[in-house]
Design a protein that fits this description.
Largest sheet: 16 strands, antiparallel, barrel
Number of domains: 2
CATH class of the largest domain: Mainly Beta
Helix content: 10-25%
Oligomer: single chain
Number of helices: 3
Order of helices and strands: HHEEEEEEEHEEEEEEEEEEEEE
Number of strands: 20
Radius of gyration: 29 Å
């Protein structure tokens, strides 16, 4: 700053000198020399001013990403990333599933704020998502929001539909490497308009909006498949949030749901998957959605010190026909899950993930944080789905799964997860003794390990 002041003073002084010099020809060597010196000083001043502007801008690099902010913090942009590499091993399946390394997710997050009350998000997915097929790069999230006040924010674009509790948890913070059977019945990402905010000193949060509408487990493309739209809503209450002395401070209870209409084969689910990401139920190829669809999901989350638990129940209904002209029926599929974890090293459990008190450092004898986990889940397909709308020979009508795991947090940004899942299948009346689907001929036993880098 002192250098800027000195340069400014010098420029002003030289200009004053040229003004009081006796009249001389414009080409006078003395005058020309002074003018050249003034121009050189002006260029130096511009360079120094820009350097000062850069210094005033805030650049922050942490394990949460790279943040570039204006001096007054009214404008900022953050760059984050997520990479998940999985190893999937299946036991006793007689070769029906392929053991594989899977690049499960590879994402960049571009987020920021403009004028303090406008935020935006752009998230491309650069990896495939299954063990058997790759997907082309896609846009997962693309949205912007206006925050009028903490009680009201308006969001526009593509984002997660506010229905499933586990679905709303960020991919890097989930307790297990894969979400539970219950998440099969909730929508993933959708396009539309959403209003939300916090009420009563942050003890209640809500979301409500109009979206294109997607079937169970699906995400919206940029083109809607019909003229109908879905209404979605969620209320989540943490009544003891501000009572620091209560053992119930970390308890949250909520309910969410959606309602709309769906048509064509694009309006019903492409299939329900196990924890090992194998499809155990799908509708017949000719089955189409035609009519009202709706969901309801009560849910809870509880955190107390190193212990954390969450659970949800989902009832999903869809009207389907076996063909465009077939008889219509409403099918009600239901699922539930309960999961818990305990951080062995004493750190607090959190819905947003575990932060080790001390990062892994072999030389210093610190090992990060360790968490043990367990989960039990069930999904039941409506008995009326068989045999008209789905084949009992190739689809199960029920899946019951348990999972246990160990999570090693070397740092907030680096995690190893090791999970074992076992899924037992149930079958509708009339199903053959030996299923036509090889993965249904025995319980699924899957060991999935994951290396995760997130920043």
């Amino acid at each position: 700053m002192r250098t800027l002041t000195r340069l400014s003073t010098a420029i002003f002084g030289l200009a004053a000198i040229t003004a009081i010099l006796p009249a001389a020809p414009a080409t006078s060597p003395e005058i020309q020399e002074l003018r050249d010196e003034i121009r050189a000083l002006e260029q130096k001043l511009l360079v120094l001013e820009r350097k000062q502007e850069i210094q005033d801008e805030k650049v922050t690099v942490t394990d949460k990403g790279f943040t570039f902010a204006s001096a007054d913090s009214t404008n900022s942009i953050k760059l984050r990333g997520l990479v998940q590499l999985d190893s999937r091993l299946y036991f006793g399946d007689n070769g029906s599933a392929n053991n594989a390394f899977v690049l499960r997710r590879a994402r960049l997050f571009f987020e920021g704020t403009l004028a303090k009350n406008v935020s935006f998000q752009l998230v491309p997915e650069l990896a495939g998502g299954t063990a058997t097929a790759a997907t082309t790069p896609s846009i997962l999230d693309a949205n912007f929001a206006f925050t009028l006040r903490k009680e009201l924010q308006l969001k526009f674009g593509k984002f997660k539909s506010p229905v499933g509790l586990e679905m709303l948890q960020s991919e890097q913070a989930t307790t297990f490497v894969e979400r539970s059977l219950a998440t099969n019945l909730v929508p993933n990402r959708d396009i539309g308009i959403l209003a939300g905010g916090e009420l009563l000193n942050g003890t209640i949060s809500y979301s409500a909006g109009i979206l294109n509408g997607v079937p169970d487990g699906a995400s919206s493309t940029n083109a809607d498949f019909d003229n109908e739209k879905d209404g979605v809503a969620r209320v989540f209450a943490s009544p003891f949030k501000n009572n620091v002395d209560s053992p119930l401070q970390g308890l949250s209870l909520g309910i969410s749901g959606s309602t709309g209409r769906a048509k064509t084969a694009s309006g019903r689910t492409a299939g329900y998957k196990t924890d090992g990401q194998q499809t155990f139920f799908s509708y017949g190829a000719a089955t189409v959605a035609d009519g009202q669809s709706w969901r309801v999901s009560p849910q809870f989350d509880y955190r107390h010190g190193s212990f954390g638990a969450m659970g949800e129940y989902v009832l999903s209904a869809v009207n389907v026909r076996p063909s465009a002209a077939g008889a219509k029926a409403e099918l009600q599929n239901q699922a539930w899950q309960i999961a818990a974890g305990y951080v062995l090293t004493g750190e607090d459990s959190a819905y947003t993930g575990i932060a080790p008190a001390a990062n892994f450092n072999f030389a210093n004898g610190t090992w990060g944080a360790f968490e043990v986990t367990g989960r039990y889940a069930n999904l039941k397909v409506d008995d009326a789905a068989f045999p008209l709308y789905a084949s009992a020979a190739s689809s199960a009508d029920e899946a019951t799964a348990f999972g246990v795991g160990l999570n090693w947090y070397l740092a907030k940004a680096v995690v190893f997860k090791f999970d074992y899942f076992q899924t037992k299948f149930g079958f509708a009346a009339g199903a053959p003794a030996v299923s036509a689907n090889p993965i249904l001929r025995q319980d699924e036993k899957a060991f999935i390990s994951r290396f995760q880098l997130s920043f």
